[in-house]
Amino acid sequence: MDGDKIQFVPGASRILIVEDDPQIAEMLCDSLNESGMQAVVARDGVTMDARMRATTFDLVILDVMLPGESGLSICRRLRVTTHVPILMLTAADGEIDRIVGLEIGADDYVTKPFNLRELIARIRGLLRRSSMTPSKDQRQRQLRFDGWRVDPIRRQLHDPSNARVATTTHEFELLLAFCRNPGRVLTREELLGVTHAGLAGPIERSIDVHISRLRQKIEVDARDPVLVKTVRMGGYMFTAVVEEV
Amino acid sequence: MLRRVIPTTIRGQITVIIIAALLIVIVAGRALERWSKSDLRAPDIESISESLAMIAGQLRYASPAERELILAYSRRAGWNVALEPIAISQRFTGSSNLENPLGRLVDWLFPPDDVRPPVGGWRTFLNGERVVAWEVDDHTLVVLSGFPNAILTSSSLSQGSYYIVAVIVLIAFFFVFAIRAITEPIQRIAEAANDSDIANSSHIFEERGSIEIIALSRALNGMRSRIRVMVESRTRMLRGIGHDLRTPLTRLRLRAERMEEGAERDGLLSDIVRIDTLLAESLHYLRDEYAVEPFERTDLASILQTVCDEFSDVGFDVRYSGPDRIIATCKPLAIMRAITNLCDNGVKFGTSVEVRLTRSEAGYDIIVSDDGPGIDPLLQTRVFEPFFKIDDARQKENVGFGLGLSIVADIVHSHRGTIELSQNRPKGLKIAIFLPVSRLSAER
User: Fold this and answer.
1) Would the N or C end of chain B have less CB density within 10 A of its end CB?
2) Taking CB atoms and an 8 Å limit, are A166 and B336 in contact across chains?
3) Which residues of chain B have a CB within 8 Å of the CB of A169?
């Protein structure tokens, strides 16, 4: 994969892997290529810049621990100049690192040692999302509805009295989907696509189960939902007025 | 201005207090003495005795009719006097059982001035009542009765004033001094030590007060930062090891995942997952990010509900029972981690777990109970120690470092809460966590 002239297959997603460990980079590169993407490796920030000048990429996989310029600094720099989706790879896990990564502009975050299938699923999710949603900026902005506050980066939800309300990953993804599509009917299939960006667990709950849990948390009376309405024959509709903060 | 006058050492402060107290005693004692003698005109036994001697002198040369007149005038002036035959002095006693011991002590401490004592001495009692008597002539005594048993001598009035002032002034001064210079700062230090978190910001002991207290605070701050440096360097080292292990582990994992499907691949992968779990567990423990997490108003019920749902979504029987909404001030991520660890243990050893939340006047009770084998009561305190593992064949499949429960205990303690293990009926383990409400809101 060395050399600056790379022949790209038209139509395949172009992925740039910025990773200093040559074996990890190579295996990752091969795996992505096998799953129908086109991956290129850069071992540090300088090589990455050269690669990015030569080609436009659909997604960058960025290791946090790099020789020379750190992954976080590269991420911040990239965010200023491009809108390319960035997936961070890191050896550190923990809420704070995740938030720092996402705050400086990464779109997703995978902890080493990662599960290859999960990584590919996330890459696909990112590619799909970036073609759907207009701008990254908007996706990171806080949302407000009916006194509630949704923070997509910290993945936090605050009720009208400003108390934090915990949600499962699925509930939060559903809520985000609702907030970004207020007043629109979302079908169960659409909602399923949102909650299953990663891997499905051994038990697949129906969308209705997640919706009823979400209602229990945000509705005044879960038996008489006002915010998340069931639409006959269709799916669900979010009735609240959503504003970006 | 006042600060500059007050010495900065406790020794100096005590000296100043004693000098100030002495000055006040001299001035105020003198004033009180003057006041009690001249303005209050408190009667003392010497002046009474002197007056009675005067009456006796007048009676001596008076005719019986005049005597009656003198006595009548005296009685009208409030003097309860009577003429008695001299033989009555045989019945005088030196003490009375009606007299209280305090009066006796005062008389003993302050003997009357060096003047001529009355008949029977200064302390004379007739039929248990204190009297003063003077000879009128060879057959007759004039006896004054009807004043309080504990009549004060004139020296008790003058010296007593000094004593009273001295006692009050010293008690008051030392009381204020002890509170301001010793008790308060020590209490402050004790509180700071209680609240202290090794990982927290630098100076927690306020360096304020007398020099001794400042020195104590400084020493404690120094000790604390040394401990912190030590803990930090050790943590950094362990985290470095953890990080460095992750790169080869990632390589290993990628290699294994790219192998052909089969038993060998599965075995490799499950070993890798196990190593990864151990690494994650110890890094979690070392990171200790729950110590620095800020307190926040949180729907506690939603946290427990969410943890239970996450478990039941992957196929475990973990149920929540309790109210839908309970707002509490706590560290939300920490609580989530604690309950997750407990449920994790629960499903490891049992088949079903119940998480219960109740609100009481004093705080919040969270009870996590499972139907597993439970823990031997003898080991129940030890399971909170880091790296403690119950040596049991059952655990082989779910090997961990034994940090789960000690993380939980740390989190509960950071909320000033308590955690208790007990036997669940009919079987299993019951973990009761109590988070006090006052403490939680005080943190904000």
Assistant:
1) N
2) yes
3) 310
Q: For the range B347-354, what are the long-range contacts, defined as Cβ-Cβ under 8 Å and sequence gap of 24 or more? A: B347/B311, B347/B316, B347/B317, B347/B318, B348/B372, B348/B398, B349/B373, B349/B394, B349/B429, B350/B428, B350/B429, B351/B317, B352/B317, B352/B318, B352/B319, B353/B311, B353/B316, B353/B317, B353/B318, B353/B319, B354/B318, B354/B319, B354/B320, B354/B321
CB proximity under 8 Å: B 136-175 to A: none
Count of A-B CB contacts under 8 Å: 108
Query: What's the structural domain count of chain B?
Result: 3
Q: Tens place of pLDDT for every residue, chain A, 245 residues?
A: 444 456 667 778 899 999 989 999 999 999 999 999 999 999 989 999 999 998 889 999 999 888 888 888 899 888 888 888 899 887 765 666 677 777 788 888 888 888 888 899 889 888 887 665 555 566 678 899 999 999 988 889 999 999 999 998 888 988 988 998 888 898 888 888 776 644 445 456 678 888 999 999 999 888 889 999 998 877 899 999 998 87
- Is the same domain home to B256 and B391? no
Instruction: Identify whether residues B306 and B372 lie together within a single domain.
Output: yes
Tell me the ipTM for this assembly. 0.73
Same domain? B147 vs B262:
no
Residue B205 lies in a domain: no
CA distance B384 to B410: 9
Q: Could you tell me if residue B420 is inside a domain?
A: yes
B349/B246 same-domain check: no
Residue B204 covered by a domain = no
The two three-digit tokens of residue B53, written as one number: 């001697």
Instruction: Write out chain A residues lying below 8 Å of B313, CB-based.
Output: 168, 170, 201, 203, 205
Asked whether residue B315 is assigned to any structural domain, the reply reads: yes
Distance CA B248, CA B203 (A): 40
User: What's the gap in Å between the CA of A204 and the closest CA on chain B?
Assistant: 7
Q: B323 with B397, same domain? A: yes
Window 186-215 of B, Cβ < 8 Å to A: none
Note if the pTM is more than 0.95: no
Which CATH number goes with the domain that contains B106? 3.30.450
Whether B299 and A21 lie within 8 Å, measured CB to CB: no
User: Where residue B242 sits, what CATH number does that domain have?
Assistant: 1.10.287.130
Is the domain of B83 the same as that of B110?
yes
